[in-house]
């Protein structure tokens, strides 16, 4: 039985086949990253990664009229900073493991979220929370095989960029910031005892001694790890910065702001921020990732 001919005067038909879903152009992203042991520590317990995800389509065979059919590739990026705790090289291992486990889980995932849509945040939360549980299970397995690893732990802060939207997920006190129109905004809340006390009204000067005491981190002994997950709409010209506390303990928000203003290139900004942390004392390992969000070329 022949298929009915499509009515070219039908607007809905034209819209769905020719125009697709209306979209604004995604933002391009350029990245820089730097990590340094610092001036006091013997080893670097920080690890970082910037990962590109790509969904490409190409029509190999068809008898459909493909004139005007757009098949742009979709790109998404994950930027991750992990700061290990545990000493004796175990912190270094924990922060590396959390990245490696994340890669393996993503590779095994039946689908990747490549676009942000209203309503998809709940799915993303579910997915990241499930990742968190699996990360915990695998860290526990490592510690079961080698009890010396029982006290290892790590922070985990991730910025996932899709077009004009970002998801920021984090555990611990590595931070994510958004730099927009010359102003710096902290996107994450430190999971430290100091922050918890400040939240219930304890004066900041009385909490300083607890600023490195994590109340939430990945590790074999961690119970009920809570991953904060937020949606951040992006604008052209935004810069997203992820860093370990080796930066934020040494370099004030004002200094970070002035460095980002002074260095418009992502890699130059990262190098300059690490340099500042070292100049200010370099007491800890310091790691920085910067993403510069720009407009689509052409
Ligand atoms: Ca640290």
At a glance:
With 298 residues, this protein is an alpha+beta fold. 30% of the residues lie in helices and 26% in strands.
General description of the model:
This protein is of the alpha+beta class. It is built from seven helices and eleven strands. It has helices at about 10-20, 90-110, 120-145, 195-200, 245-250, 255-260, 265-280; strands at about 30-35, 45-55, 75-85, 155, 155-160, 165-170, 175-180, 185, 230-235, 240-245, 285-295. Strands 2, 3, 4, 5, 6 and 9 form a six-stranded antiparallel sheet that branches. A hairpin with a 2-residue loop joins β7 and β8 (about 185). The structure holds calcium ion (CA). Calcium ion binds near residues 244 and 246.
List the helices and strands and how they pair.
Layout: H1 11-19, E1 28-36, E2 46-55, E3 74-85, H2 90-108, H3 121-145, E4 153-154, E5 156-162, E6 165-171, E7 175-180, E8 183-186, H4 193-199, E9 228-233, E10 239-243, H5 245-248, H6 253-262, H7 266-279, E11 286-294
Antiparallel strand pairs: 1-11, 2-3, 3-4, 3-5, 5-6, 6-9, 7-8, 7-10, 10-11
The name of the CATH topology is: Phosphatase 2c, domain 1
**Would you identify the CATH H-level superfamily?**
PPM-type phosphatase domain
Major pleated sheet: 6 strands, antiparallel
Question: What top-tier CATH class fits best?
Answer: Alpha Beta
Number of strands: 11
Cα gyration radius (Å): 22 Å
């Amino acid at each position: 039985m022949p298929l009915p001919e499509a009515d070219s005067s039908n607007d809905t038909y034209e819209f769905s086949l020719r125009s697709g879903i209306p979209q604004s152009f995604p933002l391009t992203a350029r990245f820089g990253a730097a990590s340094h042991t610092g001036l006091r520590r013997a080893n670097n317990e920080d690890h970082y990664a910037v990962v590109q995800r790509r969904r490409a389509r190409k029509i190999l065979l068809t008898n459909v009229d493909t004139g005007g059919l757009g098949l742009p590739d979709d790109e998404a990026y994950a930027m991750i900073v992990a700061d290990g705790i545990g000493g004796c090289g175990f912190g270094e291992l924990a922060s590396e493991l959390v990245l490696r486990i994340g890669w393996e889980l993503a590779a095994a995932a039946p689908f990747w979220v490549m676009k942000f849509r209203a309503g998809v945040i709940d799915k993303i939360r579910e997915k990241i929370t499930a990742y968190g549980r699996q990360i915990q299970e695998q860290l526990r397995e490592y510690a079961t095989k080698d009890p010396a690893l029982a006290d290892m732990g790590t922070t985990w802060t991730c910025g996932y960029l899709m077009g004009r939207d970002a998801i920021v997920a984090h555990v611990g006190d590595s931070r994510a910031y958004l730099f927009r129109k010359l102003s710096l905004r902290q996107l994450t809340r430190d999971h430290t005892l100091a922050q918890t006390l400040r939240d219930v009204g304890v004066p900041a000067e009385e909490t300083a001694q607890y600023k490195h005491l994590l109340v939430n981190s990945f590790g074999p002994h961690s119970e009920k790890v809570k991953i904060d997950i937020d949606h951040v709409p992006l604008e052209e010209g935004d810069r997203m910065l992820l860093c370990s506390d080796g930066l934020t303990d040494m370099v004030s928000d004002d200094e970070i702001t002035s460095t980002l203003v002074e260095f418009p290139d992502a890699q130059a900004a990262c190098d300059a921020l690490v340099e500042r942390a070292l100049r200010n004392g370099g007491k800890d390992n310091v790691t920085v990732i910067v993403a510069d969000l720009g407009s689509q070329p052409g």
